[in-house]
Amino acid sequence: MLQFLGGKPVVPFVIDELFLWLILVGFLAQMVDGALGMAYGVISTSAMLLMGIPPALASANVHAAEVFTTAASGTSHAIARNVDWNVFWRLALFGSAGAVIGAFLISHADTSFIRPFIAAYLLLMGVIVIWKGLRPRGSAPKIGRVRILGFAGGMADAIGGGGWGPVVTSNLIARGGEPSRMVGTVNLAEFVVTVSASLAFLVALGPTFGKAALALLIGGVVAAPIAAWAARRVPRQTLTVIVGVAICLVSAYNLWRALV
Predict the structure, then answer these.
(1) CA 74/CA 224 separation, integer angstroms
(2) CA–CA gap between residue 6 and residue 208 (Å, rounded)
(3) Cα separation of 42 and 49, whole Å?
(4) Contact, 146 vs 91, CB < 8 A?
(5) Domain encompassing residue 75
(6) Tell me: the pLDDT tens digits for 145-201?
C-alpha cells in the first residue's frame, strides 16, 4: 500500500485494480465538482477511506491531485475576472496557515484514533452539502471574519481530506458575497491552500504522492470537459442533495467500520 501511495522505493508501474478504481473515483469526484463547484476532496477522501487507505495518506494524495485541478480552475476564474482580490489574499494566507497545521496534526495522529473523527467530519460535510442544496437563497449584508474562516477551512480541509468548498464558499455567500465571485475567489485561494498542504504532507510523511494521486488526477482530467458541459444541463439543486446523501451514506458506513 505504501509503495502504491508513493512511499519508499520505486517499483515497476503496474495498472492494478485499485489504480482503476481510483481513476473512477477521480472521474466521479470531478464530475460533481465541475457541476457544483465543491466536494472533490470530500468524495475522494471518503472513497479512499472506504478502500482502507489511512486518513493522512488519503488526504496527502487527494491534495497532490488537487494541486493541478485547482490550478486550472483558479486560473480560469482569474482570467474571467471572477476574483475578489481583497478576499482572496486573506483566504489564501490564513487558509494556508491552517492547512499546514492541519497536515502536521493528522500526519502525527494515531490512525486508529483519528479515523472515526475523520469519518464523522466527512459525514458533517455531507449534511452541509444537503443543507446547501435545500436552503432558500439569501444573503447577509456584509462579509466579515474572512481570516478566521480561511484558517478554519484550511485546517479542516487538510485534516479531513476535503471540505474547503462546502465550508468556505457557503459561508461567504451566506454572509453576502456575490455567488459567482465568491466561487471564483475560493477556487483560486484553494490552489494556494492545496499547495501549502501538499508541501506540509511532503515534509511530514515524505514522498507519499504516488499512483493514488496519479489515478485521481487522470480521472479528474478526463472528467473536466464533460463536467463543464454537464454543469449547464444538470439541475443543480437536485444534484447537490443527491451528492450530499451519497457522501453521508459512505461516511456513515466508514464511521460504523471505525467504531466496531
Answers:
(1) 14
(2) 4
(3) 11
(4) yes
(5) 2-112+133-234
(6) 889 999 988 998 898 888 787 778 777 877 767 777 887 888 899 899 999 999 999
pLDDT in tens, 25-80: 999 888 877 766 677 888 898 899 888 888 888 889 999 988 887 887 788 778 87
Closest CA to 49 of 130, 108, 106, 133: 106
> Could you tell me if residue 254 is inside a domain?
no
Residues 6 or more apart in contact with residue 58 via CB below 8 angstroms: 44, 45, 48, 49, 161
Q: Is-contact 84 128, C-beta < 8 A?
A: no
Instruction: Check residue 142 and give its pLDDT.
Output: 54
Provide the grid cell at 87.
478576499
Residue matched to cell numbers 483566504: 91
Q: How many domains does the chain have?
A: 1
